[in-house]
Amino acid sequence: xxxxxxxxxxxxxxxxxxxxxxxxxxxxxxxxxxxxxxxxxxxxxxxxxxxxxxxxxxxxxxxxxxxxxxxxxxxxxxxxxxxxxxxxxxxxxxxxxxxxxxxxxxxxxxxxxxx
Length: 115
Description:
This protein is α+β, with helices and mostly antiparallel strands. It contains two helices and eight strands, in the order ααββββββββ.
């Protein structure tokens, strides 16, 4: 019987202290700034072929910056960039997109094979 009262007191103390907070939860960082995917028209191209690459993001007030280790990018400050490869770009090329806003910067890459 004494254990029953002990568990009853502990149970009441535990459940009475579990009140919902009046504070609102801040959104997750991924809700404020995220790259969901980078999608190229094609992943294998031939020299001089042009493709568009689009980044899918979440957040507001976003700024975009694209870069590549080989090839040329046109429209480096937008959601979609145009990529084309020159004869010295054969092999795997990395295209990176950096997205920024007041919450910070995130980046992701995609690989394009140039034949």
